[in-house]
Design goal:
The protein has 142 residues and is mainly α. Helix content is 80%, strand content 0%. The longest helix has 25 residues. It starts with 7 loop residues before the first helix and ends in a 5-residue tail after the last helix.
Length: 142
C-alpha cells in the first residue's frame, strides 16, 4: 500500500507531540531522580503525596510519557503503530489521573497548584490519539 502525500500540519503535529511528550519524559526522570535535598524542599503536602503514592500511579506516569514519546517518534516515521502507542499512553494517563480523585490529598494539591495541567494532559493525550487514528485512516501512516 502506498502512503498518501503528507500535509505540513502532519509534521507540525508530530513535532508538537514529540516536544510535549519529551517534556513529560523529562518530568518523570526529574521526579524519579529526585535527591533528598529536592524532596526536603517540597511542601509538606507534596512530600506526603510522594511518600504515600502507590506504585501503580508512578508506573502509569512512566507508561504515559514514555509511550507517548515513542508514539510521537513512530508518528513522525509514519508508522501505524503510533496509533496503538498513543492509545496506550492515553489509557495510562487516565489511570494516572484517576488517582487525583481516589487518593487522599491530591484534590487539595490540585487546588493549590491549579487545574491547567490536569486538564491539558488528558486533552493532549486524547487529541494525539484521535489525530493519529485519523492519519492512519487517511493513509498517512502505514
Amino acid at each position: 500500500m502506498t502512503q498518501a502525500k503528507t500535509p505540513m500540519w502532519f509534521w507540525a503535529i508530530g513535532v508538537i507531540a514529540l516536544i510535549w511528550n519529551g517534556l513529560g519524559v523529562a518530568a518523570y526522570i526529574g521526579e524519579a531522580m529526585m535527591t533528598a535535598e529536592q524532596f526536603a524542599a517540597l511542601s509538606e503536602l507534596e512530600r506526603n503525596l510522594y511518600a504515600n503514592r502507590p506504585s501503580w500511579v508512578s508506573t502509569a506516569f512512566a507508561i504515559a510519557v514514555i509511550g507517548g514519546f515513542v508514539a510521537a517518534i513512530t508518528f513522525l516515521l509514519r508508522k501505524a503503530v503510533a496509533v496503538r502507542l498513543f492509545l496506550l499512553s492515553l489509557v495510562a494517563v487516565i489511570v494516572q489521573f484517576s488517582s487525583y480523585f481516589i487518593l487522599d490529598g491530591y484534590a487539595e494539591y490540585i487546588s493549590e497548584t491549579g487545574w491547567a495541567m490536569p486538564i491539558m494532559i488528558p486533552v493532549f493525550a486524547v487529541g494525539f490519539f484521535l489525530i493519529a487514528f485519523r492519519c492512519e485512516k487517511n493513509g498517512f501512516l502505514a
